[in-house]
Write a structure and sequence with these properties.
Elements lengths: L14 H22 L10 H12 L5 H8 L3 H13 L3 E5 L7 E5 L1 H22 L4 H21 L16
Antiparallel strand pairs: 1-2
Helix pairs in contact: 3-4
Amino acid sequence: MDANRTPSRPPRQTAAGAARAARELIELLEVLWERGRDLVPPAPVSASQLRVLYGLDHEEGMNLRTLGELLDAAPPSVSRLCDRLEALGLVRRLPSAHSRRELELHLTGRGKAYLRDLRARRQEALEEAIATMTPSDRRALLNGLTSFQDAVDDVGPAPWRKPSTGDARSA
């Protein structure tokens, strides 16, 4: 073997290979989530609208400006997103207790129930798949996902990620 040549690593061990595997996993999860939608009638919520719901679940009562900053979206776009979610009965706008000129955004009971049901369906689908893995593969998955979350946090805080109450690796 040539001394100047470094041994090639399997494609999944490079950053690009790992990113490709993560992208493929996300696409697979999207298909898995869609399959689960048949079980419970979903609200017609787009990915952008779902980000709004996640944001309000994390920080109830934020105003449109703050939501726009978190979404990196222009105020008219954010307002239209909230209009649609309000029409679906998932979000409501209320006067701010701090400023008469501002409105606060809140999840409705239906919005909270939608997120709870969505998360439960996704959890169930994941548990079903993960249950078929060996214990060592499950540990490796947990370690990998925890490391990935840490890496995302190092790049910049992920919006609406609730701080963990403990180290997931010990679970």
